[in-house]
Specification:
mainly alpha, 86 residues
Length: 86
């Protein structure tokens, strides 16, 4: 599987936004194109955040690891004094 340097991608994204801002300042971008670019920049920013920064811990339910090799789930319900789930 290919890997991406997240810091490099973030820097490239910021550089692209700066170039777009310079074009806006020079009046070289029409209002329609500016609206489309704004939406695309927002969506790309969301994709970068979701795909590169969000990580899911591997557990027995979402990987091939057996339960004995995963960390204890602290979010699970704890049994009360009666021995039944909360």
């Amino acid at each position: 599987m290919a890997t991406v340097n997240a810091a490099s991608l973030h820097q490239e994204f910021e550089d692209a936004k700066a170039r777009i801002a310079a074009l806006r300042a020079d009046g070289k971008v029409s209002k329609d194109v500016d609206a489309v670019i704004g939406v695309l920049v927002t969506l790309l920013g969301i994709l970068i955040t979701v795909l590169l920064e969000r990580t899911t811990r591997k557990r027995s339910r979402n990987s091939c690891l057996p339960p004995s090799q995963t960390d204890k789930d602290e979010t699970a319900r704890r049994k009360g004094a009666s021995g039944k789930g909360a």
